[in-house]
Hints:
Helix content: under 10%
Distance between the termini: 39 Å
Strand content: over 45%
Structural class: mainly beta
Shape: globular
Order of helices and strands: EEEEEEEEEEE
Largest sheet: 7 strands, mixed
Radius of gyration: 14 Å
Amino acid sequence: QLQVVESGGGLVQPGGSLRLSCEASVSRLDYYAIGWFRQAPGKGREGISCISGDGTSTNYADSMKGRFTISRDNTVNTVYLQIDDLKPDDTAVYYCALDGGGRYYYRRAPNLDALEFSYWGQGTQVTVSS
Length: 130
Protein backbone atom coordinates (compact mmCIF):
# COMPACT_ATOMS: atom_id res chain seq x y z
CA GLN A 1 0.00 0.00 0.00
CA LEU A 2 1.45 3.34 -1.04
CA GLN A 3 1.97 5.60 1.97
CA VAL A 4 2.18 9.37 1.94
CA VAL A 5 3.66 11.24 4.89
CA GLU A 6 3.59 14.96 5.54
CA SER A 7 5.85 16.69 8.05
CA GLY A 8 6.94 20.13 9.10
CA GLY A 9 3.78 21.47 10.68
CA GLY A 10 3.63 23.10 14.06
CA LEU A 11 2.74 26.20 16.05
CA VAL A 12 3.93 29.42 14.44
CA GLN A 13 3.42 33.07 15.26
CA PRO A 14 1.70 35.31 12.71
CA GLY A 15 4.18 36.52 10.14
CA GLY A 16 6.34 33.46 10.47
CA SER A 17 7.20 30.83 7.87
CA LEU A 18 7.05 27.08 7.58
CA ARG A 19 8.24 24.55 5.08
CA LEU A 20 6.14 21.43 4.85
CA SER A 21 7.54 18.25 3.37
CA CYS A 22 5.87 15.35 1.63
CA GLU A 23 7.40 11.92 1.15
CA ALA A 24 5.94 8.71 -0.19
CA SER A 25 6.80 5.04 -0.15
CA VAL A 26 7.65 4.91 -3.85
CA SER A 27 10.97 4.45 -5.54
CA ARG A 28 10.35 7.18 -8.11
CA LEU A 29 8.36 10.11 -6.77
CA ASP A 30 8.88 11.90 -10.10
CA TYR A 31 6.37 9.48 -11.61
CA TYR A 32 3.72 11.32 -9.64
CA ALA A 33 2.24 14.78 -9.73
CA ILE A 34 1.77 16.12 -6.20
CA GLY A 35 -0.84 18.38 -4.72
CA TRP A 36 -1.14 20.23 -1.43
CA PHE A 37 -4.53 20.82 0.16
CA ARG A 38 -5.69 22.03 3.53
CA GLN A 39 -8.74 21.79 5.73
CA ALA A 40 -9.46 24.31 8.43
CA PRO A 41 -11.74 23.53 11.39
CA GLY A 42 -15.36 23.55 10.28
CA LYS A 43 -14.48 24.13 6.64
CA GLY A 44 -14.15 22.02 3.54
CA ARG A 45 -10.95 20.89 1.92
CA GLU A 46 -9.20 23.63 -0.04
CA GLY A 47 -6.67 23.22 -2.82
CA ILE A 48 -3.41 25.12 -2.47
CA SER A 49 -1.06 24.08 -5.24
CA CYS A 50 0.13 21.18 -7.35
CA ILE A 51 3.27 20.36 -9.28
CA SER A 52 4.13 18.14 -12.24
CA GLY A 53 6.37 15.14 -11.91
CA ASP A 54 9.42 16.91 -13.31
CA GLY A 55 8.74 20.04 -11.29
CA THR A 56 8.54 22.39 -14.28
CA SER A 57 4.81 23.05 -14.14
CA THR A 58 2.77 24.29 -11.19
CA ASN A 59 -0.76 25.42 -10.49
CA TYR A 60 -1.92 27.57 -7.59
CA ALA A 61 -5.32 28.48 -6.30
CA ASP A 62 -5.81 32.19 -6.90
CA SER A 63 -6.15 32.86 -3.19
CA MET A 64 -2.84 31.07 -2.52
CA LYS A 65 -0.64 32.95 -4.97
CA GLY A 66 2.11 34.96 -3.34
CA ARG A 67 2.64 33.37 0.07
CA PHE A 68 2.71 29.69 -0.91
CA THR A 69 5.45 28.09 -2.98
CA ILE A 70 5.48 24.47 -4.08
CA SER A 71 8.67 22.77 -5.14
CA ARG A 72 10.17 19.32 -5.38
CA ASP A 73 13.54 17.66 -5.19
CA ASN A 74 13.26 14.38 -7.01
CA THR A 75 16.80 13.43 -6.02
CA VAL A 76 15.56 13.00 -2.46
CA ASN A 77 11.98 12.02 -3.36
CA THR A 78 10.48 14.99 -1.51
CA VAL A 79 7.97 17.71 -2.33
CA TYR A 80 7.81 20.92 -0.33
CA LEU A 81 5.32 23.63 0.44
CA GLN A 82 6.85 26.87 1.65
CA ILE A 83 4.40 29.12 3.48
CA ASP A 84 5.45 32.68 4.26
CA ASP A 85 3.81 35.48 6.25
CA LEU A 86 1.56 33.03 8.02
CA LYS A 87 -1.81 34.28 9.20
CA PRO A 88 -4.24 32.86 11.76
CA ASP A 89 -6.56 31.93 8.87
CA ASP A 90 -3.85 29.55 7.65
CA THR A 91 -4.52 27.34 10.65
CA ALA A 92 -5.51 23.99 9.19
CA VAL A 93 -4.46 20.43 8.60
CA TYR A 94 -2.30 20.37 5.49
CA TYR A 95 -2.44 17.33 3.23
CA CYS A 96 -0.19 16.07 0.49
CA ALA A 97 -1.60 13.93 -2.28
CA LEU A 98 -0.23 11.96 -5.21
CA ASP A 99 -1.94 11.39 -8.52
CA GLY A 100 -2.34 7.93 -9.96
CA GLY A 101 1.23 7.80 -11.21
CA GLY A 102 2.47 6.52 -14.52
CA ARG A 103 3.97 9.91 -15.42
CA TYR A 104 0.69 11.14 -16.91
CA TYR A 105 1.33 14.55 -15.40
CA TYR A 106 5.11 14.43 -15.75
CA ARG A 107 5.52 17.73 -17.60
CA ARG A 108 2.15 19.38 -16.98
CA ALA A 109 0.63 19.95 -13.56
CA PRO A 110 -2.91 18.63 -13.16
CA ASN A 111 -5.89 20.76 -12.31
CA LEU A 112 -6.05 21.59 -8.63
CA ASP A 113 -8.93 19.22 -8.11
CA ALA A 114 -8.94 16.63 -5.34
CA LEU A 115 -10.39 14.10 -7.81
CA GLU A 116 -7.09 14.17 -9.72
CA PHE A 117 -5.29 12.68 -6.73
CA SER A 118 -5.42 9.08 -5.61
CA TYR A 119 -3.15 8.77 -2.60
CA TRP A 120 -3.43 10.98 0.45
CA GLY A 121 -1.43 11.44 3.61
CA GLN A 122 -2.78 11.81 7.12
CA GLY A 123 -1.95 15.50 7.20
CA THR A 124 0.20 17.77 9.31
CA GLN A 125 -1.27 20.39 11.64
CA VAL A 126 -0.33 24.02 11.15
CA THR A 127 -1.45 26.40 13.87
CA VAL A 128 -0.83 30.12 13.56
CA SER A 129 -1.26 31.93 16.82
CA SER A 130 0.47 34.46 19.01
